TrEMBL record:
It comes from the Bacteria. PROSITE patterns: HTH_GNTR. Residues 18-88 form the HTH gntR-type domain. InterPro entries: GntR_C (IPR011711), TF_FadR/GntR_C (IPR008920), Tscrpt_reg_HTH_GntR (IPR000524), WH-like_DNA-bd_sf (IPR036388), WH_DNA-bd_sf (IPR036390). Keywords: DNA-binding, Transcription, Transcription regulation. It holds the Pfam family FCD. PANTHER family: TRANSCRIPTIONAL REGULATOR, GNTR FAMILY, UXU OPERON TRANSCRIPTIONAL REGULATOR. This is FCD domain-containing protein.
Length: 255
């Protein structure tokens, strides 16, 4: 009989040691912050970075590829090219969350439920903190949606915009990133949820209620209106598209 193999450090939950390339990536980011680099700034050429960090070419290039995947830099080819500073966005977070959820066999219902817990809190904070600029943007999204209820593409665009503005207007940067990522995963049109015009009108009325509560600077009413809105969405999906909510999350660009 073969003896069972003892679990390795990863199986026991011990954090894996960081690779040299990952540690170097952290140093590069720290230097970007120290120098005050902004989007579009070029990093030093490869020969200077090799000398400065005292690493091999393979390690440096692996670090730069890692940072490119994280959206921190873009690698421009050709003469005068090289690493250029970028601003990471929620797309990378959405991909990471999608993969984690996929390997955890989580259904799309997981994301819907998470939104039900998070977005009322964001609406409450938005009522307290939202700037005049964000409030005007929120009103615009409601108006544009109302003017184009016959067009599902515009409806979906404004639906995402509305929730994005509330998340970023909450004054909590993490909420903005998380909602961007969750909306990217739970794109109803991509996963098979349809919105007939009667449903679009219901969503528009819900958005108007939420906007009015936030504009009135009423945190409790804003949270209540958002809770009602998300609950209505989940009930609609459960009634019309239960198989979609039950389907496992997969990393995909959609149909």
């Amino acid at each position: 009989m073969t003896a069972p193999v003892a679990p390795g450090p990863a199986a026991r939950g011990t954090p894996r040691p960081k690779k040299t390339a990952e540690l170097l990536a952290q140093r590069i980011v720290a230097d970007i912050n120290r120098r005050g680099n902004t989007v579009g700034d070029r990093l030093p050429p490869e020969r200077e970075m090799l000398e400065h960090y005292s690493v091999g070419r393979g390690t440096l290039r692996e670090s730069l590829r890692f940072l490119e995947l994280q959206g921190v830099i873009a690698l421009k080819p050709g003469p005068g090219g090289g690493p250029v500073v970028q601003r990471p966005d929620a797309g990378t977070l959405a991909t990471t969350l999608t993969l984690l959820l996929q390997f955890g066999n989580a259904p799309f219902r997981t994301v819907a439920e998470a939104r039900g817990g998070l977005e009322p809190m964001m609406a409450r904070l938005a009522a307290e903190r939202m700037s005049a600029g964000h409030l005007a943007d929120l009103r615009s999204s409601v108006e544009v949606m109302g003017d184009h209820l016959h067009d599902q593409a515009v409806f979906l665009e404004q639906n995402k915009r509305f929730h994005d503005v509330i998340a970023h207007g909450s004054g909590n940067e993490l909420f903005g990133l998380v909602v961007d990522a969750l909306l990217g995963i739970l794109d109803g049109s991509a996963i098979g949820i349809d919105y007939p015009e009667v449903r679009r009108r219901a969503v528009h009325r819900a958005h108007l209620r939420i906007y009015e509560a936030i504009a009135a600077r009423d945190p409790a009413a804003s949270a209540e209106a958002m809770t009602r809105h998300i609950d209505e969405y989940i009930r609609y999906a459960e009634r019309k598209f239960p198989e979609v909510l039950a389907a496992p999350i997969v990393w995909s660009d959609g149909p």
